[in-house]
Amino acid sequence: MTLEVKQKLQTELDELETELRIHLPKEIKRAREFGDLRENSEYQTALQRQTMVKARIRELRQRISEVSSIDLSRVHRVKVGYGSTVVLYDGERNEELTYRLVTPEESDPPAGFISTVSPVGRSLMGREEGDEVTVTTPAGSRRFEIKRLATLHDEIKS
Hints:
By secondary structure, this protein is α+β, with helices and mostly antiparallel strands. It has four helices and five strands. A five-stranded mixed β-sheet has the order 3-2-1-5-4. The model has no long low-confidence stretch (mean pLDDT about 85).
């Protein structure tokens, strides 16, 4: 899973570096040809885009470094952690929810992929099957019981 994340981040990084080195210098040069730079919106827009691209490149390099440093041998084998799939039971609403804990880049809540740093993800980290968990979100608090837990290691085995 972390390999997929790294590849996704690397692809975005490569695209932005190409834009920074090739496309933006051409845009800036072309915009300069329009004359007075103080009132040249094309020039100002290109410079703003250049600043945004540089910032995103820094973020991506940092994130790639962080993802690369994930040591799967240190991921819990019996507790909720990165890569775990949990089935939660909400007794108040009499419903079960299934989530997989992933990195922020992989997060897709409607599809059941939640980030380990989201309110739900943070509440679940380090918990075990059978634990009751209170999750506080901007929409309010909900209580869940962890009905089933499959850790990353369980899924690798099967």
